[in-house]
Design a protein that fits this description.
There is one protein chain. By secondary structure, the chain is an all-beta fold. Helix content is about 0%, strand content about 20%. It has strands at about 10-15, 20-25, 50, 55-60. The strands form two sheets. It has a two-stranded antiparallel ribbon. The protein has a two-stranded antiparallel sheet with strand order 2-3.
Length: about 80
């Protein structure tokens, strides 16, 4: 499997609505980071679908190798 594109070396703080499905970009090529815009169709990646139970602000990974996808775990701090 190839490596995803690093969209940014910082997380995206976003406010999410309770019960709504979200599609997190796993390929890194979306123009609507950190969410999917369908750019993965030319890659082997697929978006990660998730939802939250309550309205809240979260920090979503944009560097893509987080160990807690779709959430940021600080991995971007270790990237060259």
């Amino acid at each position: 499997m190839s490596e995803p594109h690093i969209a940014a070396k910082a997380p995206a703080g976003v406010e999410l609505e309770a019960g709504k499905n979200y599609a997190w970009c796993a390929c890194g090529q979306s123009q609507k980071q950190p969410f999917c815009d369908g750019s993965h169709r030319t890659t082997e990646f697929t978006p990660l679908i998730f939802k939250v139970e309550e309205k809240k602000t979260v920090y979503l990974c944009q560097c893509k190798p987080s160990g807690n996808k779709p959430y940021c775990d600080g991995t971007h701090k270790k990237l060259p």
